[in-house]
Amino acid sequence: MNTLDHLLTKQPAIAPTPHTPRTVKILLVDDSPEILSVVQALLAADNHRIVTASNGLEAVEKFIHEQPDLVLMDVVMPDIDGFETTRRIKALAKDDKWVPVVMLTSLDEAADFARGLDAGADDYLTKPINAELLCTKISFMKRVVALQANLFELKQIQTIFDHVLDGIIATNERGIVVSYNHGAERLFGYRREEILGRNITMLMSIPEAHRHDAYVARYRSSGQPTVMGMGRDIFGRRKDGSMIPISVGLTEVQWAGARHFIGIVSDISERKRLEHMQQRTADALQHYHDRSEEEKRITQELVARMVRNKELEDPQLQWHVLPSETFSGDLIAARRARDGKLFVLTADATGHGLAAAISLLPVVGIFYAMVEKGFALVDIVAEMNKRLHETMPIGRFLAASVFSVDQANHTIEIWNGGMPERLLCQHDGTMIKLHSQHTPLGILPFEQFDATCEAFRWENTGYLIALSDGVLEARNSRGEALGFERIREAVQSARGDSPFPFILDRLKDHLELTPPHDDISLAVVTLT
User: Fold this and answer.
1) Burial 376-403 (b: 16+ CB within 10 A, else e)
2) Do 456 and 511 belong together in one domain?
3) Conformation bin of residue 47: beta by default, left when phi > 0, alpha when psi is -120 to 50
4) Residue 200 DSSP class
């Protein structure tokens, strides 16, 4: 065996370079205790972790249990030599971890070098060992091992990425793609080998690519990212040139000592399709709503013009109509006859809203025209019933009360079909109920219909009150109906004055801002 001085050339140890990635574990194999001791001391000075073996079999066992990062292997050893030991160690090495083996030998024949390389050795150092060269080789191997660890870590990350359904793309700060998973392959149509090393802008629309270049330039000049942590909807460009809507979320990470950007990319084609459909539906609904509102406005104006006229402003009449919907199924109409009598029509159509309001139109025209021509009340009522019976659908009818007030003779003529009783309130406090005696308009044919009217006379100043069932049945938040008794109390509190404002106030107080569930109409005629 050679002496130690012959095997190890004395040289000063070299400190690890600042960029050395990390301390490595070294398996030192030699049958010479002196060499083991000196080399171990040299390597320990560089903070390496040293595991020693004095023969090939021990080396194999230590390799299995210690899993070193680097092996320094003597060639000439008892039992099995360094060539065979290297061959066994290489056979045991894991596929995902490369462990370099450096042969330490005094042999200098080319055939011996070839034999070592054939056994799996990665490098040679000849004895006597040059300490500086040894440290340099170990430093180099450390960088290779660190690079291998980074590659292994990247492989692990890539494996995880490849099992994510969304596309995941990593770039460096210049926008060069360094990682590209299977989800991105499915999304854009490019295979991984077609995209790695190329600029990410090849996956963007032209406008978005220009914006991305501006982002990168701004980032490289200021160091401040502008789109990190934000989700953005943009158009991506597939391999076939087609554009696809995508959602991109960007995150900045430090990796391998440099800044990288990871983008998670999702196909939002279905979401965009649904959003487009929703927008089209919303536009159609808005158009329908606008058209409906315009038609409603026109209809309201037409109904108002047909139902109301300036004679509702008669000083002898006070009235109020409150619809439960946009259109009212309750009606109050009034007109003075040529002889001075005041004719008043109060009506309540079946149902609510526009359908109920339209049911009122036929009788309004008849009422105004026949009063103007001087027809008697009985004829007006008969004609209205005849028209409604001919035109109204089955199940539709009109509760109505029609009366004429002759101020000169202090007489009232009234026909009431299906409306609540009319109230005749006299100045002395007496109150007479004028009950409904007839079937609502539109139910019976002309030959079966009874248009007979009742006549009443008043002596003192008083008021005739006509209200719809919507007033009596108006319910507050507790579900209580207003009822006739509260109407009576409101009339009595008027103390001979017009009960109209008192009834309205009592109604408003009772409703407590609760919308009415039925149309409301109230008319008060002053009798002097």
Assistant:
1) ebeebbbbbbbbbbeebeeebbbbbbbb
2) yes
3) left
4) G
d(CA 276, CA 513): 41
Q: Which two tokens stand for residue 67?
A: 């899993």
- Alpha helix positions (H), 308-404: 353-372, 377-391
Q: 302 lies in a domain?
A: no
Which tens digit of pLDDT belongs to each residue from 481-520? 999 999 989 998 888 889 999 999 999 999 887 888 888 9
More confident residue, 315 or 304: 315
Using one digit for the tens of pLDDT, what is the confidence trace for 168-191? 898 988 889 998 988 899 999 999
Asked if 27 and 104 touch (Cβ cutoff 8 Å), the reply is: no
Span 377-387, mean pLDDT? 95
Which residue, 158, 191, 226, sits at the end of a domain? Answer: 158
215: buried, middle or exposed (CB in 10 Å: 19+, 13-18, 0-12)?
Answer: middle
Amino acid identity for residue 491 in this structure? V
* Residue 498 one-letter amino acid: S
Q: Which of 93-97, 166-170, 177-181, 224-228 has the lowest mean pLDDT?
A: 224-228
Assess whether 112 and 213 both reside in one domain.
no
For the record, the structure tokens of 287 come out as 């158009």
Which range of residues forms the domain containing residue 451? 307-527
Which residues lie closer than 8 Å to 171 by C-beta, 6 or more apart?
A: 177, 178, 200, 260, 261, 263
Locate all alpha helices (DSSP H) within 243-376, ordered by sequence: 269-307, 353-372
Phi and psi, residue 335, nearest 5°: -155, 145
CB distance 168 to 183 below 8 Å = yes
Let me know whether 220 and 334 are in one domain.
no
* Cα 452 from Cα 446, distance rounded (Å): 13
Residue 197 CB: number of other CB atoms within 10 A? 9
Q: 17: pLDDT confidence band, cut at 50, 70 and 90?
A: very low
Describe the strand order of the beta sheet including 411-417 as a list of residue ranges.
Answer: 330-336, 342-349, 398-406, 411-417, 454-457
Q: Which residues does 32 contact at the CB level (< 8 Å), separation at least 6?
A: 1, 7, 74
Mean pLDDT of the chain: 84
What percent of the residues of the chain are helix, what percent strand, and what percent coil, each to the nearest 5?
Answer: 40, 25, 35
The overall pTM is greater than 0.70? no
Least confident range from 174-183, 240-249, 297-306, 310-319: namely 297-306
Specify the number of domains making up the chain: 3
- CA-wise closest residue to 446 among 398, 493, 402, 385: 385
Q: Give pLDDT tens digits for 118-161.
A: 888 888 888 777 777 888 888 877 777 776 666 666 666 666 66
- As given in the structure block, the two tokens for residue 82 are 């360094």
| List of residues 6+ apart from 273 with CB closer than 8 A | none
For tokens 């004829």, name the residue. 379
